[in-house]
Write a structure and sequence with these properties.
By secondary structure, the chain is mainly β. It is built from two helices and 29 strands. The strands form six sheets. Strands 8, 10, 13, 15, 16, 17, 20, 21, 22, 23, 24, 25 and 28 form a 13-stranded mixed sheet that branches. It has a five-stranded mixed sheet with strand order 7-9-14-11-12, with no helix packed on it. Strands 4-1-6-29 form a four-stranded antiparallel sheet. The two termini are 23 Å apart.
Length: 364
């Protein structure tokens, strides 16, 4: 990957112990003979901004990373390595979600967010726009890319903005500059998937199983980290118990069901699917006051990604001659809640090495 040159970005956990362990994991530059710790790399930013900086290597056929900790102790971290031959190599922006705020500006190139901790991203309501989002790096965001990664979000979003709960290490957003060349983007990021509730007003959302990352029908991968729970529950609730229509579009590869519970009726709907037999996509909707999505992976490669859209319920009216249907234009305000703990300070750090994903290195 680095034979023609590459960049490396790093993100680590935020406890003192996780930082200490990451400081003992060294990246060796075979040309300069300089060693850079993962902690040191994770702290490098473009001067005067929140944009992450990187280590860059030229003509490096072999790149070595060494764990110098006692007993090879490891902690949650994510390394994103991208080839110099990749698209957007010089133009893409890379950020971390902690205290992240990208002030309103045109997004002329893809925006990648890298994190060792599950995170959330809110694109604020604003200018009319369209977006393609994938849980991968900027090198695999293009529609015609060889990786053909799962799509988290692909939609003309209008002016509403949207919300993404990323239960993994990477997210890339590519806004449609050809269609909306002057539209600006205002974006906020934060650690965690749910503290108590998330405001979810009039906006579409993306949620997923733990470790949902780039994959395709022929090859999919699951990111593993001690900061990801084995199961995950998401809850959508309307403010003031207002009834709404909730629409779910699901991509999945799992032999155990993704469950959607209608809290109004108590009826639970389960979905399974596989790329092999063509049952990997499902669309479903409920008219309810609240819905809960839950999932426990059935194998190391079980996964799902889900797009959620809420609409107000159409109200029937009758005029003097013909019955008509009046559609309420605005969607109800929705509250988004989840089961992810608010603090990871006591998360167990295993000492065995994790699985590796192509283009993404993860240590737990």
């Amino acid at each position: 990957m680095c034979a023609s040159g590459c960049k490396m970005y790093a993100a680590i956990g935020y406890t003192d112990e996780q930082k200490r362990i990451a400081n003992g994991i060294l990246i060796l530059d075979p040309i300069t003979k300089k060693n850079t710790s993962v902690t040191e790399l994770s702290k490098q930013f473009v001067q005067g901004s929140q944009e992450k900086s990187s280590l860059e290597f030229d003509n490096t056929p072999t790149l070595t990373i060494v764990n110098t900790n006692v007993d090879y102790a490891s902690a949650p971290l994510a390394l994103f390595i991208v080839s110099a031959k990749s698209p957007y190599y010089r133009t893409a922006e890379v950020f971390e979600p902690l205290s992240f705020r990208r002030d309103k500006a045109i997004a002329s190139a893809p925006i990648t967010i890298l994190s060792a901790v599950p995170f959330s991203v809110l694109v604020q309501p604003g200018d009319t726009n369209a977006v393609l989002a994938r849980t991968t790096g900027y090198d695999a965001i293009d529609r015609n890319g060889a990786d053909n990664c799962y799509t988290a979000f692909d939609k003309n979003i209008g002016t509403a903005g949207f919300f993404l709960a990323i239960n993994g290490p990477l997210l890339t957003l590519s806004f449609d500059m050809a269609k909306y060349p002057f539209s600006q983007v205002d974006m906020i990021g934060s650690y965690g998937l749910a503290k108590d509730t998330y405001p979810f007003p009039k906006q579409d959302a993306f949620i997923s199983s733990p470790g949902f990352v780039c994959g395709s029908p022929s090859s999919h991968q699951v990111f593993r980290s001690s900061l990801l729970t084995d199961d995950k529950t998401y809850t959508l609730r309307t403010i003031a118990n207002q009834e709404m229509v909730v629409k779910f579009d699901i991509d999945m590869e799992t032999d155990l069901p993704v469950k959607i519970l209608d809290e109004k009726t108590g009826i639970e709907h389960g979905f399974t699917g596989s790329f092999q037999d063509g049952t990997n996509t499902h669309s479903f909707q409920l008219q309810t006051t609240a819905a809960t999505v839950s999932f426990t992976p059935g194998s190391d490669q079980s996964l799902f990604g889900m797009r959620v859209h809420a609409e107000a319920v159409a109200k029937p009216t009758v005029n003097d001659r013909y019955p008509t249907t009046e559609v309420v234009a605005s969607k109800p305000d929705v509250v988004f809640a989840g089961s992810m703990p608010t603090s990871y300070a006591h998360t167990r750090i295993p000492n065995e090495p994790p699985a590796w994903a192509s283009k993404l290195t993860v240590a737990r």
